[in-house]
Amino acid sequence: MNDFEWTSPTQFVFGHSAEEKVGPWASKQGLRKAIVIYGQGHVIRSGLLERICSSLDTAGIARVELGGVRPNPEIEKVREGIELAKAEGVDLVVPVGGGSTIDTGKAIAAGSLYDGDAWDFFRRPDPVTPTAALPIAAVPTLPAAGSESSDSVVIQNDQTRTKSSFHGDFVRPRVAFMNPELTLSLPAWQTFSGITDMCAHIFERFFSATKDVPVSDGIALSLLRSIRSEANKLLANPADYDARASIMWASTLAHNGICAIGRSEDWASHGLEHELSAAKPTVTHGAGLAVIFPAWMRYVRKQNPARFALLGREVFGLAPTGDADADALAAIDQVQLFFTSLGMPRYLDEFGFTREDVDGLVESVAKTKGRRFGDFQKITPEDARAIYLSAFAPQD
Where is each Fe-containing alcohol dehydrogenase-like C-terminal domain found (predicted)? Predict the structure, then answer.
């Protein structure tokens, strides 16, 4: 086990009507004015925004609003929010929605305490490293990214067609108000692409170059078993509140760092997928990972086939055959079968990519991630090209 430092300062308010407690919490903290950030209309139509604003109003917390955050959030919306937050003198950021909205809120919270352009945090090479942010009270509505308690922010720049991130405990939300009822109206695509995303967050920690971390392994494998079980319940009954609640909490634990304690992390697959959604912002992150992660797994499996076999035994109940590589491949097949059973895509072709796009993807990922990235196995531009090409449907 590696030496480690780990902080998880987020308070969780979980359960029915949790969103109605935002105002009292802010008042208790001595905060005065919030910027409420949301997406493209669902929070208005559902009445959620009204409930949150009413909670703030009743508690005497002034507010301004910023709507229109899109999936794969873009830097221009961050800039707009920073300008508004500075002009209004807000001291609290309240993002309401999925990971895109929460990441936008995090970037605004950090950028509001910075004199330069917020893209400085994300530019490559030579990013500026922020060190502080306004307090954040997140109201997640989509279990997927785990951004409600993570230390990471991912933002896209359409002008340069790049997608990048920064990290720091200072952008972990102070509190997350989590009501599983808010997820009951989610379309199946969003529900299950979110489940794919949370599995990927666990895989990025489980497939590590660090050896012998049985406690963290046990947490990761238990979460994956629970996610698989609860996902199958939602396939049968999308209105199952308890399954929704379990998935919502699993999403948080998948990305708050607890699965990584005592070991290094990989993140090569996320780096490869980010180039897909940077090139085509309509690509849902979890759906892109459903294609990229199994392709990465097959490419790197010989680095440690026993690791994949362990996943197969503990999560999918596969019996060992005595052939390490065959056991690894069988486990990877089960991962991909699980993703496709949720309605996720199998090939890059399904997003409209062609093999002619691969050189551009490789050039971009080398610029963003460097010419050697990952931990389980270092990925070079040549490796990235091979992984991308293997993710297309076989040619006749």
Answer: 195-391
